[in-house]
Structure formats: structure tokens, C-alpha cells
Amino acid sequence: MPSNLKVSYHINLYYQPYIFYCGNTVQLFDMIWQMFYILNGVLLLCFALISLILFGLRRYLQRRKVKLGVRNANIVNVGIFHPYCNAHGGGERVLWCAVRALQAKYDNVKVIIYTGDIEISPKDILGKAKDVFDISLDKESITFVYLKCRHWVEAKRYPYFTLLGQSIGSIILGLEGLWKHPPDIYIDTMGYAFTLPLFRYIGRCKVGCYVHYPTISIDMLRRVKQREYSHNNRSYVVRNPFLTWLKLTYYRLFAKVYGWVGQCSETIMVNSSWTENHILDLWDVPFKTHRVYPPCEVMHLKSLEHIENSNEIIILSIGQFRPEKNHPLQLQAMYELRTLLNRNEGMWAQIHLVIVGSCRNDEDYERLKNMQDLTKHLSLENNVEFKVNVPYPELIELYKKASIGIHTMWNEHFGIGIVECMAAGIIMVAHKTGGPLLDIIETSEGSQNGYLAADAVEYANCILNIIRSKKEENDMIRDAARASVERFSEKEFEVNFLRAIIPLFNQSI
After folding, report:
1. Do the Cβ atoms of 320 and 282 come closer than 8 Å?
2. SS (H, E, C) 411-425
3. Could you tell me if 506 and 479 are in contact, meaning their C-beta atoms sit under 8 angstroms apart?
4. How far apart are CA 76 and CA 108, in angstroms?
5. Which residues are CB-contacts of 372 (< 8 A; sequence separation ≥ 6)?
6. CB count, 10 Å around CB of 303?
7. How far apart are CA 413 and CA 405, in angstroms?
8. Contact residues for 479 (Cβ-Cβ < 8 A; gap 6+)
9. In what helix (H) or strand (E) does residue 30 lie, and over which residues does it extend?
10. CA distance linking residue 423 with residue 425, whole number of Å
11. Are 206 and 226 in contact (CB under 8 A)?
């Protein structure tokens, strides 16, 4: 073989791996570029299809508005999203007071209530609003749109990723409502923020919301980060660093999306300083955020006269049997109170804790059973009584007889039950967080209207202090409490609610 061929042969052998590598690299880049172009094409196709679907849906909803008479220039259709409108909690008082305010202010408003109470007639729903809240409404200007997909927003459906599941479920439920009866103005009063962009951008509505508490809060993120156990941060997550990191990542991503959907609201009403602080952190739109305290039944309660009974001291607790209400802390406080009384059996026999609450489902009844078992375990069964779903007249009698109130929820967003107890002349001991701390209870000398506590021992000490205080001292606190709750009346709520939604009507009338 000639020498020049030998050299060429050896060179080819030497560079062959390099040539092979370069060839493969070029092929790899070509393949990546092809995949990139294909992916771009798929994304563009998906974008086009989604745009087409949204355009078609918006056109359909426009035609449906005309068909239903929604586009009537003389009528403004206000849709209120409240899937559990037949309940009788503080959120429902907000709903019916808002409807009453709209009917009183605007002659041309037709109210559409989106509800999942499909087995209850409009007559029965409005009748219950009258019986429970003493709110009379004009039924002729109210339309109920029954939603059959309410099960999509129930927490029991999502044992894991509950926040995400319920939020996606609310979109499904909102789509059903939008499909059945599109409004001109949409107001969410139950905290389903993920419905806001749906009604604004697809339904082309003016949208607002009343936020009782944020779906996710900075406190929830902090608890997960610090690996603190709570009812929504289970023990197996707390013990596992990887699961903690995973949940924290999930919460942070969810908070980002929650912030975006919240910003879609054109007016935002929050029920307390605590809720306002969190919504400002998450949604960051202070110029359209308004603090509107929820309506509380204070006028009638302020007129109640306390029934004195020297042989009995009733401590009253009012709240739904939900995990966040932290009823076990009340039982622990009673246990500590017995210890502080230092074997004063005569005094202990006079003290009775009456826990009044409502049960919505089997889970609530199971929690009630667990608390009854805990009562027996702590040997408190002679001093603790549970009352479930009591009628309003019986509740009024309890207001008259009770002298002390207890509320143990950590970071309670507001505390309607606290306000109503104070209006009835009951001295409240509430948790030193959230709405009770920031808005309701004042503990400074000279203006004290209640007590704040953080754990079972503090609760027990506060209760014992009330029991041992002179009647004149307790009467001063009661008088201050009754005077302070006027700012939480139904009248104040309706004035502030109507002021907050003016931007929606200015653009719709």
C-alpha cells in the first residue's frame, strides 16, 4: 500500500469516532428541531382549537342571553353564586342581606341565585331565610338556577389535593350555571374564586366577590414549611421531609394561580382585617379591595335580658362541628379549669359548657361522636352538653342564660358567633388570632369588651377570672361589648356592600 494511502487510512481510523460523534450530534439536533417544530404546531393547533371553542361558547352565551331576556336593556341580571344557599350559617346571612340590599336599591335588578340545593323549592328556601334570619325578600325578582354538579366541590370527593380538586370542581359547577343562565353581573359569595375568570372572560360579565376566608393563606404555607401538625397538614406529611417539600411546592404553585384568578374580580369584598391582609398578599389589588364586615343579628340580641341563676354558670359555644373550629380545645380548657378550681367541687358542679353546633354531613356527626367520647375520657360528661341543629327560639334562651362564651378556632377569619354572643351580653373568651384579635375583641384596660387566649391553660384562667370577678366589673365588660358590636349590624353591611359594588353597576346600567 502506498505511503500516502497508509497515512490517509490511519487518519480516518483516528478521526472516525469523532466523525461518528459529530454525525450523531447533528442528527440529534435535527431531531430536537423537528420535535420543537412539531410541538409548536401542536401547541398552535391546541391554541386555535381552544380559541375556537371559547369563541363559539361566547357566541352561544350571547344568543342564550337574548333568548332568556338577559340582554334586556331595562333589566340588570345579578347572578350570585352560592351553591349551599339553604344552609343557615353566617355566609347565608351575607347572601340574603345582599339580596335584600339589591332589591331595596335597584328597581331594575333581577337576582339569579345559583344553588345546588336541587331538592328544595324556591318557596322553602326563601321561607327558611325568613324563619332563620328574619329576612323578607321579594320572590318575584329572584330566580333560582339549580346546579346538579355540586358534588364536584365537596371536600370528601378529594382525599388528596383537596384545594386543587375543589377549585377545578368549582369551574365545572360554574360552567353549569353559566350555561343555564348567564348573568350581566356575577358575584361569588362562597369563596369559589376559580369561577371568576370563567364568568368574566367567557360569560363576559362584570364580576365581584365576597371573601369569607382565602382558599389558601400565608399561614398555611408557614405551617407546612415549619412542619406543624394541623387538620390540613397530616402527621405523615409532617414527619416526611420529601412530602413536606412536595406539599409546599404544591401550595406555592396553587397560591400563584389563586392570585391570578382573584385579580380577575373587578371589586373584592373581604369580611375582616385578617382576610384583607391575606387577600392583599395573594391578590395584590388594594385599590379594588374593600373591607365589608358581615351582617350580624345584633339589634334583637342587644335587647335580651340576662336570666340570673346563682346555682349555674353556663359557658356557651356556638359553631359548626368542623375540624377547624377546634372543639377539643374547649374540652381541654374545661379539664384545666377543674384543676385550677383546686378541688372546689361545689363551684365545679355549677359550671356547664353547652356546645351548640350544626352538622352538615356524616363527617360532622362522626366528629361529634369523637368529642362525646373525649368528654367521657376526660370525665367531663356531667359538665358538658352537646346540642345539635337547635331551633332559633332555643338558641335565644341559651343566649339569655349563658354568662360566658368560648370560641377556640385558630385564625378565625371573622367570628359572627362571637359578635352575636357579645350582643347578647355574654362575656367572650376567643382565640388570640384572626378576626377576634384584629377586629372584634379589645382587652386593654378601660375599653375591655372580652378576653383572648391561645391555649387550654389560658382559656381556663380567663374563665376563672370571669367567675371570680365582681358583678360590677363583668357588667362593664358586657356593656362595652354590646356597644362595640353596632358596627357589625345588618344595616352597616348593606350600606358598605352597595358602596363596594357600585363599579359593577356603573358599567352595566
Report:
1. no
2. CCCCCHHHHHHHHCC
3. no
4. 6
5. 386
6. 10
7. 18
8. none
9. helix 3-68
10. 5
11. no
Q: What region does 360 belong to: left with phi over 0, alpha with psi -120 to 50, or beta?
A: alpha
Backbone φ and ψ for 458, nearest 5 degrees, come out as: -65, -40
Nearest alpha carbon to residue 212 among 407, 500, 439, 414 = 414
Distance CA 233, CA 214 (A): 17
**Cβ atoms 418, 441 nearer than 8 A:** yes
Which are the contacts of 258, defined by CB distance < 8 A and separation ≥ 6? Answer: 167, 193, 214, 215, 216, 282
In the chain, the amino acid numbered 150 is R
Do 405 and 426 contact (CB within 8 A), yes or no?
yes
Q: Chain centroid to CA 339: how far?
A: 36
**pLDDT (tens digit, 9 = 90+) per residue, 438-483?**
999 999 988 999 999 999 999 999 999 999 999 999 999 999 999 9
Cell numbers standing for residue 342: 383546686
Phi-psi region of 346 (alpha: psi -120 to 50; beta: other; left: phi over 0): alpha
Q: Where does residue 360 rank: exposed (0-12), middle (13-18), buried (19+ CB within 10 A)?
A: middle
Residue 237 grid cell:
406529611
pLDDT < 70 stretches in the chain: 1-73, 229-233, 236, 507-509
Query: Residue 122: phi, psi to the nearest 5?
Result: -55, -40
* pLDDT score recorded for residue 63: 66
- The number of beta carbons lying within 10 Å of the beta carbon of residue 469 is 14
Three cell numbers, residue 177: 350555571
Query: CA angle at residue 348 from 343 to 351, to 5 degrees?
Result: 165
Q: Which amino acid type is present at position 183?
A: P
Q: 3-class secondary structure for 138-200?
A: CHHHEEEEECCCHHHHCHHHCCCCHHHHHHHHHHHHHHHHHHHCCCCEEEECCCCHHHHHHHH
* Nearest CA among 281, 267, 317, 276 for reference residue 294: 276
Q: What gap in Å lies between CA 157 and CA 208, rounded to an integer?
A: 28
* Digit-coded pLDDT (tens) for 420-436: 999 999 999 999 999 99
Question: Percent helix, strand and coil across the chain, each rounded to 5?
Answer: 60, 15, 30
Give the three cell numbers for residue 39. 410541538
The distance in angstroms from the start CA to the end CA of the chain is 98
Mutual angle of helices 327-340 and 456-468, in 10-degree steps: 60
Q: Residue length, the chain?
A: 509
CB 30 within 8 A of CB 24: no
